[in-house]
Amino acid sequence: MSMELKLKSIRSACKSVALSTLLGKSYFKWHVKRQTAKASAERKRLWEEFQTENPNLADYNKPYCTPRQLVHKLTLEGLVVSDRAIAEEVIFRENYFRFKAYCIPFFNKNTDKFHTGTTFEDLHGLYCADQKLRDFLIPLLAQLEVRIRATVDNVVTSTTSDPFWHINTDYFKNFSDAERALSKAQQRFNQGQQEFVVHYRKRYFTNRSYDYRRTPPFWIISEIFTLEQLLSVCKSLNENCPTFSASAGQSKLETAAKPFGIASYSSLMTNLSCILELRNLCAHHSRLWNRNLKNPAGLKNKHSIKASHPNRLYSHLLMIRLACKAQGISDGIKPFMVNMFATVPVFSRDMANMGFPSDWENDTVWQ
Q1: What separation in angstroms does the CA of 215 have from each of 128, 161, 185, 202?
Q2: Which of 4, 231, 323, 355 could bridge to 260 as Cys pair (CB 3.0-4.6 Å)?
Q3: Mind listing the pLDDT tens digit for each residue in 206-248?
Q4: Taking the CB of residue 2, how many other CB atoms lie within 10 A of it?
């Protein structure tokens, strides 16, 4: 082939490549545009479906308000603010959304105004008192959490003679819940840098289960558990498992409950869930003083004066009192609450809403 023909062939090939490239780019642009249009149409359809299913919902479009604007709003609603600078600082520091929950006892819903004479100091005083209450409870809850964790492990491990009982499905009524907790704890264990974690990872495994070959004994993994994970594993145990059977209708797991002043393992698990709820409320600085809470178990016949509301703070203080008393922990609950009622007018006024009977301190449980 002559040089001229070769050059002509090359030019023709280059034109074909250029044309193919151009067509490819055009097709790609068309495809992207088409996919974008389809995605947009699908989003539109989903929004229309959402709005049809939720006709009472409105798009949230409230603007941000500065602390100055929020304090002005409170004054328009009848709140007495003697020092606006301090009020604005508190609103900025504590978050208005959290703070406004403490307005409720002082607010008249019928008039949309504060009760006459209500001051910012009243609101802030209640807010600080609730924080003081949470700070008081945290150490007691922490002690009970550690002791329940250790007691359950001692009882179950000694009963089963198995340090790895937590990976034996025979002991559980619903292992899936325990499995999820174990999986999360194992992830943290695999990444942990604590000395005891690194020591175990470098030296040991268990041949009881290939799936859980790197899982340590319960007394080690339980130190990695969150309280929620501990509860998930412990409440999934099957009290009717032959290993735990003591006699007709009785379980060896009850041995774990008695050191905390209650008779049954199921009651211990209920109260552990109450401790979890209280601990989370305290740790996350949530309103506590007049909040609805879970009902504790095992309190019947343990106190002589009935709570005004079973699912309020008082019943939980009774639960903590009984557990601490059984454990020999000095709880200090009675003098603390007597002082709070004496120094926080709203606490005293709303004592019944907190579950406290009027003569609560005369109950034998507090003696």
Answers
A1: 44, 17, 9, 12
A2: 323
A3: 999 999 999 999 999 999 999 999 999 999 999 989 999 887 7
A4: 7
Can you list the residues of the chain whose pLDDT is less than 70?
Answer: 1-25, 27-28, 31
Query: Residue 204 and residue 189: Cα distance in Å, rounded?
Result: 13
Residues 6+ away with beta carbon under 8 Å from 23 = none
* Beta partners for residue 172, in sequence order: 237
Task: Find out whether 301 and 262 touch, Cβ atoms under 8 Å.
Answer: no
- Residue 286's alpha-carbon distances to 74, 102, 278, 289, 359, in angstroms, are 22, 11, 10, 10, 28
Gap between the Cα atoms of 269 and 260, Å rounded: 11
Half-sphere exposure at residue 327, Cβ-oriented, CA atoms within 13 angstroms = 23
Question: CB–CB of 278/293 below 8 Å?
Answer: yes
Rounded CA-CA distance 21/15 in Å is 10
Contact 301, 365 (CB under 8 A): no
Radius of gyration, alpha carbons of the chain: 32
Whether the CB-CB separation of 242 and 171 falls below 8 Å is answered with no
Q: How many CA atoms lie within 13 A of 167 on its CB side?
A: 22
